[in-house]
């Protein structure tokens, strides 16, 4: 049973707290840091663990990549000339890296932090679907382990909040529950996963590559392919979600009685309300299609327009995280929340395509050459991977094959052109295969736990208006068509398209 609380109580929870945050240079991390500083200026300290050579360079990264970004504009205006002093007083950059035991911090810093930290938020991750297995394993699996080990040393810690992803569910269909993974669990029946053996496999592969003096390129490709192979062997579609699932497993296994909240968002999109509607960073699944179309580099899409794309604006994810922290403080359980929309307010891909089509019709992209509006090509959609493959084979693979034969007959006259085109073809096919699990996703994320959390939050619209912020995270409040047309797509064009 979760007790009721209002926005004042949520903001009030952070008063006097010291919070260690990883991933603050990333998209979601910035939204979180900004929101805490805006709604609770009396937070004691935000320790931001940043990958950097030393504290000066960590400071520089915070200034340029976190507090220097547009999303801090509202906070800057609020504090005026005192903004830099405020940041200096509240934000403490730490040079560290979650891939290392003790987060790469020295003994003195570690001891100081372990005595003072109240909350840890682990948002750091590598989010690349086709990441090298060693890199993804170090960050998403060992990183979670190192954070958990550190959390257990913090004697006044109220909780560890770990950001995972709803897609740890792989490509399962139907209603997907908010349930924890057991250690060794996989998505393929009859197959057991041994995380230790995965680590050994990575180390062995590294040794083998080194012993054979392969180039860096070969090593990178070997590691990337190994990740995909292992992920698929155990039933996950890519290295990212596979390693995120293993990270969750280790947290659940190692936590003892440490209070843990795991937040599993689906596809995070631009800010809906606060502080800067449309703001976002980093190109995600659906945004690559928007950008591809805006640049008129893409007009064919592998997507079933009737299927639901599960999206959730970044500010809603952060609101859910903050409410969960306030609610689960010192609660010795492990709580899992799907911060998703497919169950409460499903948005089919058709909504994105309609609103996108209208948006670009009213705001046509301009040619880089002469600044004139370009003529938009017609969008074509393929509902299945075999149909997409068949179209690509006829339209591109076949002409490529003819070019290859012509090239042989003409003693390599088209070698360069053939090389370029076949690389492009392979790239498009590779991206389509990687994104297919999301474009053709048939699952629906249950969010019963999250609904309970929402119910605990007493909303008072009038009060929230006068405060200038709220903690709402109800997808039912979003009109998707309006959001895509007026907020998200203009945001993608403004912040991601250059
Ligand atoms: N974006 C989405 O659509 C989405 C959806 C579901 C779940 N999530 C989850 O939400 C979290 C945040 O995602 P995001 O989109 O904000 O990611 P992001 O923009 O790619 O940022 C990732 C952050 O993690 C940091 N990081 C990576 N490796 C690290 C390491 N070894 N040690 C310390 N920090 C490290 C990065 O630091 P550098 O700047 O040094 O690289 C960066 O700050 C992730 O856990 C992700 O799995 C994201």
Automatic annotation (TrEMBL):
Any GO BP: long-chain fatty-acyl-CoA metabolic process
PANTHER family per the UniProt record, alphabetical: FATTY ACYL-COA REDUCTASE 3, MALE STERILITY PROTEIN 2-RELATED
Function: Catalyzes the reduction of fatty acyl-CoA to fatty alcohols.
GO MF: alcohol-forming long-chain fatty acyl-CoA reductase activity; alcohol-forming very long-chain fatty acyl-CoA reductase activity
InterPro entries found in the cross-reference section: FAR, FAR_C, FAR_NAD-bd, NAD(P)-bd_dom_sf
SUPFAM superfamilies reported for this sequence: NAD(P)-binding Rossmann-fold domains
UniProt KW keywords: Lipid biosynthesis, Lipid metabolism, NADP, Oxidoreductase
Pfam family, one: Sterile
CDD domains: FAR-N_SDR_e, FAR_C
Protein name: Fatty acyl-CoA reductase
Location of the Fatty acyl-CoA reductase C-terminal domain: 398-497
Domain Thioester reductase (TE): 21-321
Similarity comment: Belongs to the fatty acyl-CoA reductase family.
Gene3D superfamilies listed in its UniProt record: NAD(P)-binding Rossmann-like Domain (3.40.50.720)
Protein EC: 1.2.1.84
Catalytic activity: a long-chain fatty acyl-CoA + 2 NADPH + 2 H(+) = a long-chain primary fatty alcohol + 2 NADP(+) + CoA
């Amino acid at each position: 049973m979760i007790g009721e609380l209002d926005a004042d109580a949520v903001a009030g929870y952070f008063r006097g707290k010291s919070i260690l945050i990883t991933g603050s240079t990333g998209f979601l991390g910035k939204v979180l840091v900004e929101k805490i500083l805006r709604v609770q200026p009396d937070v004691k300290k935000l320790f931001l663990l940043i990958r950097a050579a030393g504290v000066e360079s960590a400071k520089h990264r915070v200034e340029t990549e976190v507090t220097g970004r547009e999303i801090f504009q509202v906070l800057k205006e609020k504090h005026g000339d005192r903004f830099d002093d405020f940041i200096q007083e509240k934000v403490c950059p730490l040079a560290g890296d979650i891939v290392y035991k003790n987060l790469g911090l020295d003994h003195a810093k570690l001891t100081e932090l372990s005595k003072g930290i109240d909350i840890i938020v682990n948002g750091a991750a590598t989010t690349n679907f086709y990441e090298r297995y060693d890199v993804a394993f170090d960050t998403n699996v060992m990183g979670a382990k190192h954070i958990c080990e550190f959390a257990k040393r913090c004697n006044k810690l109220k909780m560890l909040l770990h950001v995972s992803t709803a897609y740890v569910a792989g490509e399962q269909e139907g209603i997907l529950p908010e349930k924890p993974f057991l250690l060794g669990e996989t998505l393929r029946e009859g197959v057991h996963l041994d995380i230790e053996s995965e680590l050994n496999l990575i180390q062995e592969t590294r040794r083998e590559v080194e012993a054979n003096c392969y180039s860096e390129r070969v090593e990178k490709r070997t590691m990337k392919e190994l990740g995909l192979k292992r992920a698929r062997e155990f039933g996950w579609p890519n290295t990212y979600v596979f390693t995120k699932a293993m990270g969750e497993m280790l947290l659940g296994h190692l936590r003892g009685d440490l209070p843990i909240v795991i937040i599993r968002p689906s596809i995070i999109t631009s800010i809906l309300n606060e502080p800067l509607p449309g703001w976002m960073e980093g190109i995600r699944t659906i945004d690559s299609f928007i950008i591809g179309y805006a640049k008129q580099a893409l007009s064919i899409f592998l997507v079933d327009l009737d299927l639901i794309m599960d999206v959730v604006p970044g500010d809603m994810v952060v609101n859910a995280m903050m409410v969960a922290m306030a609610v689960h403080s010192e609660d010795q359980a492990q709580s899992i929340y799907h911060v998703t929309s497919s169950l409460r307010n499903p948005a089919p891909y058709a909504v994105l395509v309609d609103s996108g089509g209208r948006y670009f019709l009213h705001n046509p992209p301009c040619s880089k050459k002469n600044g004139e509006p370009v003529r938009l090509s017609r969008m074509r959609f393929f509902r299945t991977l075999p149909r997409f493959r068949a179209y690509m084979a006829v339209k591109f693979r076949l002409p490529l094959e003819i070019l290859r034969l012509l090239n042989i007959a003409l003693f390599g006259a088209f070698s360069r052109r053939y090389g370029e085109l076949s690389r492009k073809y392979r790239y498009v096919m590779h991206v389509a295969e990687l994104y297919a699990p999301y474009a053709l996703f048939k699952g629906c994320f249950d969010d019963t736990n999250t609904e309970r959390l929402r119910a605990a939050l007493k909303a008072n619209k009038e009060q929230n208006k006068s405060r200038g912020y709220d903690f709402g995270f109800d997808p039912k409040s979003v009109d998707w068509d309006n959001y895509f047309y007026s907020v998200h797509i203009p945001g993608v064009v403004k912040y991601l398209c250059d």
